[in-house]
Amino acid sequence: MNITNLFKIALRALANNKLRGFLTMLGIIIGVASVITMLAIGQGSKRSIRSQISEMGSNMIMIHPGADMRGGVRQDASAMETLKLADYRSLASETRYLTAVSPQVSTSGQVIYGANNAPTSIYGVSQDYLDIRRYKVADGDIFSDHDIATAAKVCVVGQTVADNLFPDGSSPVGRIIRFGKIPLYVVGLLESKGYNSMGMDQDDLILAPYTTIQKRVLAITHLQSIFCSALTEEQTDAAIAEITEILRTNHRLAEGADDDFNIRSQQELSSMMTGTTDMMTILLAAVAGISLLVGGIGIMNIMYVSVTERTREIGLRMSIGAKNRDILSQFLIESILISVTGGIIGVMLGVGAALLVNLLAHFPVYVQPWSVFLSFAVCTLTGIFFGWYPARKAASLDPIEALRYE
């Protein structure tokens, strides 16, 4: 018996029991749709996190003072003064893997303009800080090298600060605001970046020359941190090794001595967060995949029922010349048709559900082609695996006993 006739027989058998066939498919449909939707949500979250980290500077490297031991007590790293302006200048002039370097000193306080005031943070940085943190000036300009050299009382404000101090929507550029008791002339307004993946408002800040914050606000000569940007994200590790070598030389650390500084990169944060997202995605997909197992068991159950109901038909076919492999193929094709049809419907429902989640819940989703192909392949294998045994049972029936079956 050729394959075309076997398909016709299988389709006719399924058409005679439409409702039963659909209910059998339902487990496969739900399983495939669930897997695709869960993977789409997981991949969407992963891409969203990466995008937000990229906006913060995916190749950003942060250098902070290291905690020190004094009298057997480990000191707070924020109280250490191991980073100096000489370190910043060395990194800016001697490195091969960095495109931008900026010192940073910061503090928090009240910013005031007229009758309006708000709490915020002020950061003393260089112009490279904008490139490192992916900030852009929307209005006005950034402070100049001359402003840094003279510790000028100038600043650039974020959109949140501007909204708090100028609720009428007027431009802050050219105005004089006060941070504590220090008057600052606003030379620029930053483009809005919104909240980052950790829920922090990236627009609630003031940027000023680092010399201004050092001398006029904090009265310090050391740096609280240094921010750098590697040539590419892939060269971050090479940049970190280079930074470590330069700082150890500057700080005259003996071989084998612990570093008196800490280096962190956005790559570490990205790996940690995407790793967590991947684990949750796999967990969700595994839970959704249980539906496929349930659907496969449903196929096996219904094929057993079908073999029992059609025992006389099987005996008749075998008595007029049908071979064991023909009977095996017939029931196996029925099983595969159920699983493949359920898989196709499940794929359409899964993609539709993912798009619906994005449309209604505004949750980031991304349907990867491999997840569709994988789900479809799994449901096909499920049909073969769970349909094989009932088909084998049908093919092994004795035709005489089958014809006698009531």
Molecular structure report:
The chain has 406 residues and is an alpha+beta fold. The protein folds into two domains: 3-52 and 272-404, no CATH class; 81-259, no CATH class. It is 56% helix and 18% strand. It has helices at 3-15, 18-57, 85-94, 128-132, 145-149, 159-165, 210-218, 236-250, 266-309, 311-319, 324-361, 369-395, 399-404, and strands spanning 60-65, 69-70, 73-74, 98-113, 116-125, 137-140, 154-157, 176-179, 182-190, 206-209, 225-230, 261-265. The protein is elongated. The chain starts with a helix and ends with a helix. The model has no long low-confidence stretch (mean pLDDT 84).
Main sheet strand line-up: 4-5-10-7-9-8
How would the global form be characterised? Answer: elongated
Number of strands: 12
Q: Give the amount of beta strand, in percent.
A: 15-25%
Q: List the uncertain runs.
A: none
Output the number of helix runs.
Answer: 13
The helix fraction, in percent, is: 55-70%
What Rg, in angstroms, do the CA atoms define? 34 Å
The total number of structural domains is 2
Oligomer: single chain
SSE pattern, N- to C-terminal:
HHEEEHEEHEHEHEEEHEHEHHHHH
Structural class: alpha+beta
The profile of the biggest β sheet is:
6 strands, mixed, barrel
CA-to-CA gap between the ends?
27 Å
Mean pLDDT: 84
